[in-house]
């Protein structure tokens, strides 16, 4: 499956956020399997602390709230899957996140994939009143609480950061077992344990093939040890752009070389950030047409 990550909103859609919805409809018509929204509640001054290299966008770049945007996309589409890649789950109260995601899943006919991460920006957590140092524990507790609320009612849950007793939280997701949860995290022992416990998939950070291969192998081995089918693990991997002689991204070469290499390394979903492939709105038309031939 091919997934498109929406980024570069200012450059590609300007002030017209409805353009994202129109783009998602064109992506569905082109046979794309999934559209994914990124997430920041706010951006602070210290983007130099971004842990994955140079932060690729200016401070004033828009970050539309992902679940709200996916709800608008759901109303304009019928087939394409609706994903977050990633939603900063520790910033959302568990009850609100469970309700919002379940409602979106019900409205869309069961098309939601909840991709989550812990975030990296301390200022964002401070402004939301959430302790930055507890973000991993809070994310895991939040997701366990969501799964409880999506299960049998009334639901009760107790943890260090989230607790409730005898709640009905309706509507529930229409997907059997609840909305699939994908973890956009490094494959540490702590995160591997959480993916084995709760996860449908893993989204490696970056596009390094060696890291992809190693992480997928470790996770599938952990699935076997826990009695889960290793073939059930989804892996959504960013496909590194191949370059032409002038150093520009070459989509044809990427699809011929780098995409198969990512699949061989363990990817089940190939992710393309649209900002890496389109500099202007009109570039999106050519980009989708070429991907349509590959889908």
Summarize the structure.
With 295 residues, this protein is α/β, with parallel strands linked by helices. The protein has one domain: Alpha-Beta Barrel (TIM Barrel), CATH 3.20.20.
Verbal overview:
- Helix 4 (94-108) links the parallel strand 4 and strand 5.
- 41% of the residues lie in helices and 17% in strands.
- The mean pLDDT is 95.
- The protein has a single domain (38-273), classed as TIM Barrel (Alpha-Beta Barrel), CATH 3.20.20.30.
- Helix 3 packs parallel to helix 4 (94-108) and helix 7 packs across helix 8.
- It is α/β, with parallel strands linked by helices.
- It is globular, with a radius of gyration of 19 Å.
- An 8-stranded parallel beta barrel has the order 1-2-3-5-8-9-10-13, surrounded by 5 helices. Strands 6-7 form a two-stranded antiparallel ribbon.
- The longest helix has 17 residues, at 209-225.
- It starts with a strand and ends with a helix.
């Amino acid at each position: 499956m091919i997934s498109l990550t929406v980024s570069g909103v200012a450059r590609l859609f300007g002030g017209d956020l409805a353009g994202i919805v129109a783009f998602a409809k064109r992506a569905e018509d082109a046979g794309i399997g999934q559209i994914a929204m990124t997430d920041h509640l706010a951006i602070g001054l210290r983007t130099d602390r971004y842990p994955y290299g140079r932060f690729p966008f200016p401070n004033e770049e828009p970050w539309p709230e992902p679940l709200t945007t996916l709800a608008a996309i759901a109303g304009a589409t019928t087939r394409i899957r609706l994903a977050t890649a990633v939603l900063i789950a520790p910033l959302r109260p568990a009850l609100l996140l469970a309700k919002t995601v379940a409602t979106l899943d019900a409205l869309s006919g069961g098309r939601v994939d909840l991709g989550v991460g812990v975030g990296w920006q301390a200022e964002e957590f401070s402004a939301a009143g959430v302790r930055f140092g507890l973000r991993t524990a809070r994310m895991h507790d939040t997701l366990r609480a969501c799964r409880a609320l999506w299960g049998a009612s009334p639901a009760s849950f107790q943890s260090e950061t989230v607790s409730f007793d005898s709640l009905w939280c309706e509507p529930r997701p229409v997907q059997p077992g609840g909305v699939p949860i994908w973890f956009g995290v490094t494959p540490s022992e702590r995160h591997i344990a959480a993916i084995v416990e709760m996860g449908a998939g893993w989204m490696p950070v970056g596009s390094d093939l060696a890291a992809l291969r190693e992480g997928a192998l470790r996770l599938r081995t952990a699935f076997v040890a826990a009695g889960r089918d290793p073939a059930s693990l989804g892996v959504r991997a960013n496909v590194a752009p191949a370059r032409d002689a002038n150093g520009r991204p070459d989509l044809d070469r990427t699809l011929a070389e780098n995409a198969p290499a990512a699949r061989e390394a363990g990817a089940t979903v190939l992710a393309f950030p649209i900002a890496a492939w389109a500099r202007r709105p009109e570039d999106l038309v050519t980009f989708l047409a070429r991907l349509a031939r590959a889908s």
